[in-house]
Design brief:
Largest sheet of chain B: none
Number of domains of chain A: 1
Structural class of chain A: mainly alpha
Radius of gyration of chain B: 21 Å
Oligomer: heterodimer
Number of helices of chain B: 8
Helix content of chain B: over 70%
Shape of chain B: elongated
Structural class of chain B: mainly alpha
Order of helices and strands of chain A: HHHHHHHH
Number of helices of chain A: 8
Order of helices and strands of chain B: HHHHHHHH
Shape of chain A: elongated
Helix content of chain A: over 70%
Largest interface: A-B, 25 and 27 residues
Radius of gyration of chain A: 25 Å
Strand content of chain A: under 5%
Strand content of chain B: under 5%
Chain lengths: ~230, ~250
């Protein structure tokens, strides 16, 4: 990957920095994605998160409860005597697990805009990958024509602005999630975003041709979706 | 997969990790990644040692081994945090938790590295005492590596904090007193951390003794726990004596 593309890509660490998602947020996102998108990898991630959560609950509940039960009631070590107790402790762990999921379900409404923004980040990274693919194709076919190099530059400029917009949107969303009463900072970010969007519209009027036109449209679509989400915040 | 990638990155470049912890960068995501890594690897190793007895023991040990490390951590962490705060530390509870979980991850990764050796001896030698002592040795070695990492990490983070405080305080001190009368600033001593590590070892070994069996005696049926008798150190001494002097 060329260095200009590498710096454009939004990494998971950068998403962490912009969005500052807590454990609850991340678990709710996994739950919402599994329910809303019904894609195999989202369902897989959700099941893994669920399995891990249940495992952690069991690890923290079962051994301490068993130790205290044994200490207080001279619990017999016979398998037949231990089994019902172990099963009831597992049932208790399951109850905590269900309670945790019910709490996550109540958080879905709060996290919906974040999920949409994260989806746009994925789309943005896909556009970067497409440009990388085009770069490789062009390097196989020989020297790029000057018009194509110009198109590439134009798309990269749009993507840089799109990247700034996505980062701003994630920051605004974070402010909204963490401090619902801090309105002023949020409006400053939205204002910056709209200035970027106006600049992008100029690019769109002078659109390149071929594959780059398609990528430019994708970038514009990402910006419009992000703008829509920010207006809803 | 992202979590395991983060742990591998940390193992390759610990300096960056420690600097990030000192600055409080992405602490929560670090905690999650290390928790996932520790639980997965410790449960896997627990399952391997339990496998030497029965499948029930395997499930039991897969729960007990991560519980041993994580509950020891949860018991001892508040003591460390309070002692450090009293000694003048400005670090958060999350920073201590991230450092400790990173050490637990180091221990769990080391255990997984020993897993083929454990499996080999499990398959090739039918000697319960030897298998038990081999695993105690593995626990000791991995524990020392993990504790060493934690100690060094704490020292580095303390130094970073000290340097930051010193640059904030020294200009004021220089302006108000002459060089001879100003007591030199020193980073907080390692005594608290060393004492806490001894406590951590004691709590861990006692909890391990309380949660046993992890291996399961071959001639006895599966049992979830054993009677609370003697202590960990007396039992290890007895086992070594029994191995060296069978009669």
């Amino acid at each position: 990957m060329r260095s200009d593309l590498r710096t454009l890509k939004i990494t998971p660490d950068e998403v962490d920095d912009y969005a500052e998602l807590t454990v609850v947020d991340q678990s709710t996102i996994a739950l919402y994605r599994a329910i809303a998108f019904k894609k195999l990898h989202h369902v897989g991630t959700f099941l893994l998160v669920q399995l891990f959560t249940l495992g952690i609950i069991i690890i923290f509940v079962v051994p301490p409860v068993l130790i205290s039960l044994r200490k207080s009631s001279n619990l017999s070590n016979e398998t037949s005597a231990v089994l019902p107790i172990v099963l009831s402790i597992f049932a208790f762990s399951l109850l905590i697990f269900v309670g945790w999921n019910a709490y996550l379900l109540s958080q879905i409404r709060r996290i919906k805009p974040t999920v949409k923004l994260l989806r746009e980040v994925e789309r943005f990274n896909q556009v970067i990958q497409s440009i990388e693919l085009l770069d490789r194709l062009e390097s196989v076919q020989g020297e790029g024509r000057s018009s194509e190099l110009e198109n590439r530059q134009q798309v990269l400029q749009v993507l840089q602005l799109t990247r700034d917009n996505l980062a701003n949107a994630l920051r605004a969303d974070k402010i909204w999630r963490l401090h619902k009463n801090v309105v002023e900072q949020r409006y400053t970010i939205i204002n910056d975003f709209e200035e970027n969007l106006a600049e992008l519209m100029v690019f769109n009027g002078d659109a390149p041709v071929g594959e780059y036109r398609h990528l430019l449209n994708d970038a514009m679509q990402i910006n419009l979706s992000v703008h829509q989400e920010m207006r809803k915040l | 997969m992202h979590h395991f990638g983060l742990v591998m990155q940390f193992l390759r470049d610990r300096q960056t990790f420690l600097v990030e912890v000192a600055k409080g960068v992405r602490i929560e995501s670090k905690i999650i990644s290390f928790l996932i890594c520790s639980v997965t690897f410790l449960a896997l190793y627990g399952a391997i040692i339990g496998l030497s007895h029965s499948w029930l023991q395997m499930v039991s040990s897969a729960i007990k081994l991560p519980a041993l490390y994580l509950i020891t951590l949860m018991i001892c962490l508040p003591t460390l945090y309070i002692f450090e705060v009293v000694s003048g530390s400005s670090r958060t509870f999350g920073q201590y938790l991230a450092l400790l979980l990173a050490s637990t991850s180091v221990i769990s990764v080391m255990m997984i590295a020993f897993a083929p050796v454990t499996l080999f001896f499990h398959l090739s030698i039918n000697d319960y005492t030897f298998f038990k002592l081999l695993n105690v040795a593995i626990f000791v070695i991995t524990g020392i590596v993990g504790i060493n990492f934690f100690y060094r990490g704490m020292m580095l983070v303390s130094d970073a904090e000290f340097n930051r405080n010193a640059t904030e305080v020294m200009p004021v001190v220089d302006a108000t007193a002459d060089a001879n009368s100003t007591p030199p600033l020193k980073p907080r001593g390692a005594g608290v951390i060393k004492a806490w590590l001894v406590l951590y070892g004691f709590v861990g070994s006692q909890l391990g003794w309380t949660l046993r069996p992890f291996f399961g005696t071959p001639d006895r049926p599966f049992s979830l726990f054993r009677e609370l008798e003697s202590n960990f150190y007396a039992h290890i001494l007895y086992t070594i004596t029994h191995l060296l002097l069978p009669n």
